[in-house]
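Subject: mismatched residue count in predicted assembly?

I count 232 residues in my input, but I want to confirm that the predicted structure covers every chain. Input:
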Amino acid sequence: SQELEQSPQSLIVQEGKNLTINCTSSKTLYGLYWYKQKYGEGLIFLMMLQKGGEEKSHEKITAKLDEKKQQSSLHITASQPSHAGIYLCGAAILSGAGSYQLTFGKGTKLSVIP
Amino acid sequence: GAGVSQSPSNKVTEKGKDVELRCDPISGHTALYWYRQRLGQGLEFLIYFQGNSAPDKSGLPSDRFSAERTGESVSTLTIQRTQQEDSAVYLCASSTGPFRGISYNEQFFGPGTRLTVL
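Triage response: the counts match. Full output below for your records.
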């Protein structure tokens, strides 16, 4: 089965600082999905990466999928308190019944200190 | 517009009791997913409904877990004879169509139900 490891598990940064979160897969990724989760709220879809070397940006958040397609990094520039939350990476897997489903890493908890 | 809603938001129950969790997907979304998120763990896929097709139950951890969906609307996840290890946040998501791996129909998540089994 495919496993996703995220690092770090938690991160505390000063407002205005840059940060990077990593997601490493035990198998080749055919689609990598970044989500953000806030307590009491549902997951918010950030972006999807498919091609090796692909890079996407959403406001101050940039994500890349490496050429070998087994690792993705999420980079936040000039962090703000609104960036605080849990960042989850997800990947497509084939379920036991043959449908595609998402498997997720354990998440990286980001705290931004004003 | 209205997003995915779940009820109750919190549920505390005693070991051995049955619980029922509800999910109202976004109107018109044919696909519906249930996930479980235990403390310190990633989200685990539980069950998937797509239209009128037979659900994909391959993620259900035991026969104490079951789920139903009426057409393309409300879904209920039932846990019988709850155990302490069932304590988790149960998340529901819906999407406009099936997830085909390469082409992604974005899954919209509800806020979850936090289940605590004493």
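Strands of chain B lie at 5-7, 10-13, 19-24, 31-37, 43-50, 65-69, 75-79, 88-95, 108-109, 113-117. Marking this ticket as 'not a bug'.
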